Amino acid sequence: MTEAIVEGLKDRVSKAIKIHQSIGVIVPVNNYSDLFESIMDQILGSKDELWIYLTVTKSYDTIVKSYKSIADKRNVKFIDCISRAAGISRIDKNCVYIESPVLLEKIIIEILHIAYDAKKDAKKYLVVDSLSALMIYNNPETVKEFFQHLINKTRSEDIHTVTIVIEEELDDYMNKIVFLNEKIIKVKESFI
Amino acid sequence: MERKPLKEIRSADRVVWMTQPEERDEIVERVTNAFNIAKGKFLSTGNMELLMQTAEAFGRGLYADYVKDKPVNLSIKEWLNSIVEEVMNPTGTGVTFTRITDKEIESLVFKSLLEEETDEPEMTSLFTYGMLRGLLLSAFPDGEVIMKTSSAHGAPMNGFVFKTEASDEEKTERERVKTAFISIMKQT
Questions:
Q1: Which one, out of A83, A119, A182, B131, has a CA that is 20 to 30 A from the CA of B66?
Q2: Quick one: what percent of chain B has pLDDT higher than 70?
């Protein structure tokens, strides 16, 4: 069952992200790990595209422990927003560590730095994991400004974005933010 | 020198606190051994209650051995500081506390060495719940740990609420958690 869900999600997200500049994926809390796995599968299967994974939910070393080969992929870069705040001082060639998840401007700067270094003709994708986690650490108004800025910047740099939102944590504020995306995918078991 | 087991993170009117994990081998090993014993009891009997009891007893043991300051009228904030400093940080556990009041504490576990090393979210989540319950009830016998989200259910983080005094409904939380995990284990 889980494999079918993961495959279904992978298919939906991969098709949507190729067509649309930005998609928001609203996922029930209990299906988050299926969505995460489907995105990781997609990233692991990529070669020429650049993938930037902004993580506020899990630390980079936690992700690498589950997906060891991802650390060797040269087309995948992580931006880890929580390890440094938790005093974890690792250095990894595939990961940029942000001092704190409240440094939202720094996050945008790092995304753009990574994108500029990519090959000109490479397709570029950004995963934001997750808007809900950013809201834990930041004031909603600040996150809204950040997200508007992020969407504008990534659009101008032709970076396609996937933003994860936990359904149970959706409030009016987050609803307004997530609907800044071009396309919304609501994950329901029935859609797979 | 003032102890700083938690780091405060502020953004405008939002404030949260994060643990500062720094593993100490002897306590990490102790947790791993206890987990393996609890898991072994479950695998050999199929009895989830045994796993929970072992985890809770282990939590009580950790509290007795590692938490040095145990004033009679301990506040939950003092309890938290001790637990973070003596248990969570040395076991490499990354936790964000989103609310700390005099009666309850809300937390999200974003990093768990046990979960990373074993890749058995069902058993590690339940073991962690039991261990935390043992740690809380050692200081607050009328309290309860509420499990709000679990990675075993596919959630991004394990979410716990620690309460100094449980309501009648909250007192059934342990049974609710056990039943939920029995159902998950049947599916896996």
A1: A83
A2: 97
Considering the domain boundaries, does residue B1 fall inside one?
A: no
Domains observed in chain A: 2-191 (3.40.50.300)
Rounded percentage of chain A residues whose pLDDT exceeds 90: 82
The domain total for chain B is: 1
Chain center to CA of A123: 16
Q: Between chains, do A65 and B19 touch, taking CB under 8 Å as contact?
A: no
pLDDT value of position A34: 92
Q: Give the one of A33, A137, A166 whose C-beta lies nearest to B14's C-beta.
A: A137
Best B19, B107, B110 member to test A by mutation, with max A CBs in 10 Å, is B110
Both structure tokens of B93: 């556990």
pLDDT digits (tens, 9 = 90+) for A60-72: 999 999 999 999 9
Phi-psi region of B50 (alpha: psi -120 to 50; beta: other; left: phi over 0): alpha
- Can you tell me the distance from the alpha carbon of A59 to that of A61, in angstroms, rounded to the nearest whole number? 6
| B116 within domain boundaries | yes
* Helix (H), strand (E) at residue B16: strand B14-19
Query: A141: number of CA atoms within 13 Å, CB side?
Result: 4
Query: What CATH number corresponds to the domain at position B87?
Result: 3.30.1380.20
ipTM of the complex: 0.91
B35 in any annotated domain? yes
